[in-house]
Amino acid sequence: MSSHFAANPEADVDDTDMSGNVCLANAQIVLPDRVMYGRVTAIDGVITEIVEGDYVPTGAVDCEGDYVLPGLVELHTDNLERHIEPRPEVDWPHLAALIAHDGELASTGITTVFDALRVGSIHGGKARYDAYARNLANELLEARAAGLFRISHFLHLRAEICSETLLEEMALFGPEDRVGIVSLMDHTPGQRQFRDLSALKTYVAKKRGLNDAEFDEHVANLKELHRKNGARHEAGAVAEAARYGAVLASHDDTTAEQVQTSLVNGVRFGEFPTTVEAAQACRERGISVMMGAPNIIRGGSHSGNVSALELAKADLLDIVSSDYVPAALLLSAFALADVWQDLPRAIACVTHNPAKAGGLKDRGQVKAGKRGDLLRVRLHGKTPLIRGVWSKGARVG
């Protein structure tokens, strides 16, 4: 299994997914800077021709005026974890979970995914988190090598700074593992995503069934783990990301000071900054801002943090992630198009911008020479409906 991340994160990636030929005609094609009525052709998985006009060649798919846009690129999704543990303490058969996850993403228009796997565990107490990433990554890579997936999969290691075993778990990965992203996740109570302890209590109590005393013990344990391990875990995770050749991301930056630390660490994009201050600091330092699609669809953060729409209106939003609802990604792009009155700009937030942030130059735009990752989308009112999905020119949905 080869990877070019270690040699050069900006390089095209040798990707051995299936490929095919397709011509999508009579369509509104979302190009990088405009929408053009015409047809797009992909041969052997690569876009070869984009032609204006309504002519439908023999054998082409007549899109009947639907939109054609690039396949969606997902940088951070918890969806795979949801499939392998559909309820607390339920361990679902992993190959079945992987195939279901892959199929679900394909059905929502996602053609490239960086599957988020937690590294860093807590082994004691009721709110324990056991190691799983290395074994699941092995199964994922084996399934990919066997040609079982419809779409393109990379790994995103969520490095839990506030944990017991982060560096031991990260040491098990290497440049050959398709680790495209490492995100620095610090869930120490009282800061970042969980400045409000009541929000943390609601989240953990529902997920782990903790009573008040158990929650207080959990908070105290996390704070002690951060005191003991925080600095060395953060420095170690940054070093391991460099060893893999992976892109580095921050998570839940709240203050300009935290963003400055992210810059020093070499962070390329900030996942879910919790305040306007942090998003503005990212913009000033050349760090791309990523927000969650559910935040856009719901009109606000479920944790009480800054609204993604507020950042969009302030020109502080670059990338959107489906986070915990895969189908939200396409919905959010068309919602942003309404806000900005600019469909190509909105589509770039879920295609070109995440591909660029993830170090992938070969996808994310309807452009000659790019991968034939394409979607056919029809609007029903303001709701986009998937009418077809192609990964490297092969129909997968």
CATH topology: TIM Barrel
The biggest beta sheet is recorded as: 8 strands, mixed
Annotated CATH homologous superfamily: Metal-dependent hydrolases
User: Class, according to the CATH hierarchy?
Assistant: Alpha Beta
Describe it.
The protein is of the alpha/beta class and 397 residues long. It has a single domain, classed as Metal-dependent hydrolases (TIM Barrel). Helices cover 35% and strands 24% of the residues. The chain contains 13 helices and 16 strands. The strands form 2 sheets. Strands 1, 2, 3, 4, 5, 14, 15 and 16 form an 8-stranded mixed β-sheet that branches. An 8-stranded parallel β-sheet has the order 6-7-8-9-10-11-12-13. Helix 3 links the parallel strand 7 (110-119) and strand 8 (152-160). Helix 7 runs parallel beside helix 8. The protein is globular.
Please describe the topology of this protein:
Elements: E1 22-30, E2 35-43, E3 46-52, E4 61-62, E5 67-70, E6 72-77, H1 79-84, H2 94-107, E7 110-119, H3 133-145, E8 152-160, H4 166-170, E9 179-185, H5 197-208, H6 212-244, E10 247-251, H7 256-265, E11 269-271, H8 276-284, E12 288-292, H9 293-298, H10 308-313, E13 319-321, H11 328-340, H12 343-348, H13 352-357, E14 374-380, E15 383-391, E16 394-395
Descriptive labels:
397 residues, alpha/beta, TIM Barrel, disordered N terminus, PhnM, EC 3.6.1.63
Summarize this, please?
By secondary structure, the chain is of the alpha/beta class.
